[in-house]
Write a structure and sequence with these properties.
This is ABC transporter. Keywords: ATP-binding, Cell inner membrane, Cell membrane, Membrane, Nucleotide-binding, Transport. This protein is an alpha/beta fold and 226 residues long. The protein has a single domain, classed as Rossmann fold. The chain has a six-stranded mixed sheet, sandwiched between helices. The chain has a four-stranded antiparallel sheet with strand order 2-1-4-5, with helices on one face. A hairpin with a 2-residue loop joins strand 9 and strand 10. Helix 3 crosses helix 4 and helix 3 packs parallel to helix 5.
Length: 226
């Protein structure tokens, strides 16, 4: 059975051919098995966000192959990449980016409606997710009425709303205080395992990384053993 995510010889250079050329990724090879949670650690500026964007089809590598759920996405057009990204990949960022004018529940419903899920089904799925992460009673509140930890939990639910097979997270608790970060991260790990997802989670926190199935390090543009 193929891996959920497979990156082969991924290279990315910014300002190519110019005096300030930067080789961000220099032949990255990385796989995430089905149901596996992989931690990605890296020094600041090492290119982890670039790597996650390429893995999630938000950016294109200069060379290399990206496969998601066994499908080679290399050279695919925008329509195909968007369809895969919408249905097969969930994203979580350091800042929640919730839509401020909508309730927590609506923030989790809307991505499903954009994916043609019937409204009743979308509402039930959203409410179930919010209850799983402990904010079901806050479903009718807008983001401004939620704590930072609650907002990030809602963001987790939004990322999982369309039942993606792959979750990509870039410092998902990085803007929270240490105590809240640990609690919210445990919630994330619980729901990822409960949903049976594959996940690639970037974090600076080695204690959080140790809770994952495997940890890799991005250094000098390549994946190195930890």
């Amino acid at each position: 059975m193929s891996d959920m995510l497979s990156l082969n010889q991924i290279r990315k250079t910014y300002n190519a051919g110019k005096p300030n050329e930067v080789d961000v990724l220099r032949g990255v090879d990385l796989t995430v098995a089905r149901g596996e949670i992989v931690g990605l650690i890296a020094p600041s500026g090492a290119g982890k966000s670039t790597l996650l964007h390429i893995a999630g089809l938000l950016d294109l590598p200069d060379t290399g192959t990206v496969r998601i759920n066994g499908q080679d996405m290399t050279g695919q057009g925008d329509k195909t990449r968007t369809a895969m990204r919408r249905a097969g990949v969930g994203f979580i960022y350091q800042f929640h980016h919730l839509l401020p004018e909508f309730t927590a529940l609506d923030n989790v419903i809307l991505p499903q409606l954009a994916n043609a899920v019937p409204e009743r089904e979308a509402r039930d799925r959203a409410m179930n997710l919010l209850e799983k992460v402990g904010v079901g009673k806050r479903a009718s509140h807008r983001p401004s009425a939620l704590s930072g930890g609650e907002q990030q939990r809602v963001a987790f639910c939004r990322a999982l709303a369309n039942k993606p097979g792959l979750l990509l997270a870039d410092e998902p608790t990085g803007n929270l205080d240490p105590t809240t970060s640990a609690l919210v991260f445990d919630v994330l790990m619980g729901i990822v395992r409960d949903e049976g997802l594959s996940a690639l989670i970037a974090t600076h926190n080695l204690e959080l990384a140790a809770k994952m199935d495997r940890v890799v390090r991005l250094e000098d543009g390549q994946i190195v053993p930890v």
